[in-house]
Design a protein that fits this description.
InterPro entries: Nucleoid_associated_NdpA
Number of domains: 2
Helix content: 25-40%
Pfam family, one: NA37
Strand content: 25-35%
Distance between the termini: 37 Å
Order of helices and strands: EEHEHHEEEEEEHEHHEHHEHEEEE
Organism: Butyricimonas faecihominis
Strand order of the largest sheet: 2-1-4-5-8-9
Number of helices: 9
Largest sheet: 6 strands, antiparallel
Protein name: Nucleoid-associated protein
Length: 348
Amino acid sequence: MMNFESCEINNIVIHDIGNKYEDGKLRLSESCFLPDDMDVHNLLKSYFLAPFKKDAYYRFAPIEDNLYHNLVYNAVNSIFEDNTNFYEASLNIAQHLFDQSNHPNIKAGELYMVHFKNCVLEEGPCDAIGIFKSETKDTFLKIIMNDNSYQLESESGINIKKLDKACLVFNVESENGYRVSILDKTNSTEAVYWTTDFLGLEQCEDNYFQTSNYLKLCKDFVQEVYNQENDIPKADQIDMLNRSIDYFKKADTFNENLFKEEVVSDPQIIDAFENFKNYYEEKNELALKDQFDVSNSAVKDEKRYFKHVLKLDKNFHVYIHGQKKYIEKGYDSDRDMNYYKLYFREEN
C-alpha cells in the first residue's frame, strides 16, 4: 500500500513537449528547481501524488531481452544510482517523449520530472521518480483591486485537481524492472502512447492482477454467456455477480475449485464457465492462476463495475444485494404482465 504522508520533493525539472506530428517543438529547461515556499511544495505534492490510490503495479519491460535497452528504465536507473544524473536523465526522457508524440491525437503539454524522498511501500521507505505530463489548461478568474474597485481578469493555468498522465517509479525490485504505478485519464490510443510506446511498461502479474482479472472474467461471463439470450433471468445474473464478489470479499486465498463449487455450482454452467475462461485468457493474452492470495484493494476497485440493479420497464429499479431465494418471478395472466415477489422482514 502506498503512503505519501512523509514524502518530500527533492528535485523538479519541467520541459515543454510539442506535438511532433504537427511540427511542434521540444523546449528544454536549462536547470532544475526546488520550491522554497512550503505552501507551493505541499500543493505540488498533492497535485502529483494524490491521484495514486490503486495498488495495480507495472514494471519496465525488457527490449530484446535487455532492460537497459528500455530508455526510460535506463534513465531512471541512472538517477537511483547517482542523483547527480537527474537533469541529464530528464533530457533523455523529454527527447524520447517528444519522439513518441507523433500522432494527431497526442496533445502538447509540460513534462514534469520529480525526485521524491521517503515514499512508503510495504517494504518500507524508498525514493521514487515521478514522470508527469500536463495537457489540459483551465481558465481561472482572478480578482484584482483597481482604483478602489474590484475587477476580474481571466488567466489560463493548470488545475491542481486534474492530472492527465502520470507515472511513479519506486526504487524497489530494480532487477525486475522496478515497481511502477501509472495514471492515464485519456482514451485507448493515448494510453498505448503513454504506457507502451513511451514508458515501455507491462503489468505485474501479482495478486492484484490475478484478483482483478478473475473478477473481470466473472463479470464478462455473466454479460456474454450467463445472460438473457441464453434464458437466464436478469435476477439470476445479478445473483451470480453478487455471489462472485461476496466470495472474493470473504476469502483470503482464492481457490478455483472451491469458487466453482460455491458460486457457479451447476455442472453445465461450470463447463460453460471453463470454456469462457479459456476464451478470456486467449483474448487477453494472459494466464489466470487457479490459486492466489486475494487482493482486497482489487476487490474494492472492481466492485464498482458490478451492477446490482434490476430495471423493470420505466416504473421500478430494484437493487438486489442479497440472496436469490428472497425474490420470486411470476406471470399474471389477467394483466398479461410479469411480476416479481420480494420477501423481507423489515421495512426501513
